[in-house]
Amino acid sequence: MVPEGAAALIRVEESATDANSLVSGVPRPMAEWRLPGEEATLGEELFPAGTPVDPAVIGVAATCGFEFLTVRPSPRAALLVFGDELLTSGPPGAGRVRDSLGPQVPSWLRRYGATVTSVTGPVKDTLGAHLDAIRAALETSDVVCTTGGTMHGPVDHLHPSLAELGADYVVNTVGVRPGFPMLLARVPAADGRFRFLAGLPGNPQSAVIALVSLIAPLLAGLAGRPFTTDLPLVEAATPIAGRGRDTHLALAALDPTGRIATPVGHVGSAMLRGLANAHGFAVVRPGVKIAAGDMVPFLPLPLFPGERA
Which of 2, 203, 206, 288 is deepest in the core (most CB within 10 A)? Predict the structure, then answer.
């Protein structure tokens, strides 16, 4: 505490003391003491609701004397991988394909703020196996993500499972390519609350598009975090074709400035190589063709800072 009535302070290292213990020195022009309320005034909101609690936020809370914070827990997410044709080890062949979604989807979910509770699969292509797996996942999760089975083929049991569980569709297919057969449903639970089931298409790139466009805002809402739909505009380096009546999400890489987008190759809905070389998606509206030099909205992937720079 500065003694009451003090006019100035002199730093020890800028002072001198004579034989009579008298101190001399020149105070600095600005007063060198800290006043109450410099960082926050009485009653001022420190952070709005929805602010992620990181180490700095914890430090500010401690500085201001708060021992406890009211928070929302991270949403819990489970992953169910459907498909008898999937392999979990070894190279693909003889009509069998490697599961590429089971290894990658949990990481995308974590980057969007979810706590992944379980990864199960491949789940057998029967209605009973689907129902058992979904019920088990719903017991430990707020959101259950499934891969494959979102269409109405002879071995697609997701829609019959949702009917059996009394689910209501929030979204059932989207006018976007790739990724149109994505879905989101609310499933009633015994505790009176709803859980969510997000059906990702089986094609890998389509599944990731469902993650960034459908599940990301869901997880933000469950966590109480704000979610903006305002996308930055970037310049197209080359023409980007549209997809007729649907929105086209075209994989693209940004230049070092982050302002110019170049479409990447290997972008079939079943491919992942283009995704691994991209920073996000150029959003081409229905009925629109993008020419080189046009400005286009850009939907970024949740990459770590500095990745693919």
Answer: 206
CA distance readout (Å), 120 to 100, 113, 147, 159: 13, 20, 11, 19
Question: What is the per-residue pLDDT across 204-232, written as a single tens digit (0 to 9) for each?
Answer: 999 999 999 999 999 999 998 888 889 99
Per-residue pLDDT, averaged over 229-245, amounts to: 95
Is 0.90 surpassed by the pTM of this model? Answer: no
Query: CA–CA separation, 261 vs 257, rounded Å?
Result: 10
The C-alpha atoms of residue 298 and residue 277 are separated, in whole angstroms, by 15
Could you tell me if 205 and 272 are in contact, meaning their C-beta atoms sit under 8 angstroms apart? yes
* pLDDT, tens only, 275-305: 999 999 999 999 999 999 999 999 999 987 5
Every domain of the chain and the residues it spans: 76-85+97-223, 233-300
Which of the listed CATH numbers 3.30.565.60, 3.40.980.10, 1.10.1280.10, 3.30.70.1730 matches domain 76-85+97-223? 3.40.980.10
Residue 180 has which token pair? 């149109």
Q: How far apart are the first and last CA of the chain?
A: 50
CATH number for domain 233-300, candidates 2.40.340.10, 3.40.430.10, 1.10.760.10, 3.10.150.10: 2.40.340.10
> Which residues lie below 8 Å from residue 187, measured CB to CB, with a gap of 6+?
134, 138, 144, 162, 165, 166, 167, 194, 195, 196, 197
- Please report, for residues 27, 75, 142, 188, 251, the alpha-carbon distance to residue 270 in angstroms, rounded to integers and kept in the order given: 71, 29, 28, 33, 13
